[in-house]
Amino acid sequence: MITPQMEEYLESLGKLQERGESLTPTALARELHVAAPTVTEMLHRLTEQGYITYEQRQPIELTAAGVAAASTVIRRHRLWERFLQDVLGLRWDQVHEQACQLEHVTSPELEQRLARAAGEPDSCPHGHAIPAGDNVVSETSAIPLSSLAADQAARVISVSEEPDLLRRLNAVGIVPGAELHIEQAAPDGRLTLRIAGALRELAGADAARVQVVSLAHSNDALPGSKPDAVVSLADLATGEEGIVHGFQAGRGLVARCLALGFTPGTPVRMLQNLRGGPVIALVRETRVALGRGEAQRILVSPTPAAELAQPAVVEAAHD
């Protein structure tokens, strides 16, 4: 019988594989914040149970059963994170620890109901993909923000889940889907970034915990460089208006957004944004409540109210 501790180890192995890192005892110990001897003991137990294959001085390999178990735990963890933020209104720096407890007591039936209640999301609040089957989704296309140089642009894909880090990132506007431009890169790794028109600074250690994809750009087309800058719907303050630009989301969420009326070129007005929970927006004369994570995946061009009468249709972004 699999125990919560075994699930924690398999989940960590799954996350290492997801990031394209080597599955070694040292990497696993670092991921779990435990001592190497403790890891070795558990690896033998997991081998006996058929979840991994492991020989001393050789990389760890997940078996088919191990991949399935790791995928299940990762999926339940990230579904709980999304539910806790979008439905219950917890901040994104609060959901990880709660999800760590709930993931081990979630039955298959509860998992299905949880997914439906959360709107069948395809990513957690921190931008990590939610597995849909018995597999681990690769995130190797993303690179650390710290690896980019000055005058490069990027879109944030995912961030690490440490609460202190998340609070610092939130304070400067670094969330999944946000687009940024690196204005300066200091020798010590500190970055000066332009995000939604504002200059922000980020320590090199924090930048290393942010995964991005590089964007081809010209300076004239950067976020914040023109009045038609693109931000997330969650960035609009109460009373502010904009035009739906597109989505930084998977097919499931895009379909839900379109069904709710958030089609590209449509005017939208923020009715309630408390900067920590769900938002309420007016679209097509209908009040729509969205989880904060959902609102962060809808891209809008902030627009003065006088310009909303004749919105220009813009092309939606696709995954």
Indicate the percent of residues in helices.
25-40%
At the first level of CATH, what is the class of the largest domain? Answer: Mainly Alpha
Number of helices: 10
The termini sit apart by: 39 Å
Form type: globular
Supply Rg. Answer: 21 Å
For this entry, give a set of tags.
alpha+beta, SH3 type barrels, 319 residues, 21% strand, 33% helix, globular, Arc Repressor Mutant, subunit A, six-stranded antiparallel beta sheet, 10 helices, 3 domains
Question: Describe it for me?
Answer:
The protein has 3 domains: 1-137, Arc Repressor Mutant, subunit A; 143-221, SH3 type barrels, CATH 2.30.30; 231-307, SH3 type barrels (Roll), CATH 2.30.30. Helix content is 33%, strand content 21%. It has 10 helices and 14 strands. It has helices spanning 4-18, 25-32, 36-48, 64-86, 95-102, 108-117, 163-172, 204-207, 251-260, 292-296; strands at 52-53, 61-62, 143-144, 153-159, 179-185, 191-195, 198-202, 210-215, 231-232, 241-247, 267-273, 279-283, 286-290, 298-302. The chain has a 6-stranded antiparallel beta sheet with strand order 3-8-4-5-6-7. A hairpin with a 5-residue loop joins strand 11 (267-273) and strand 12. The two termini are 39 Å apart.
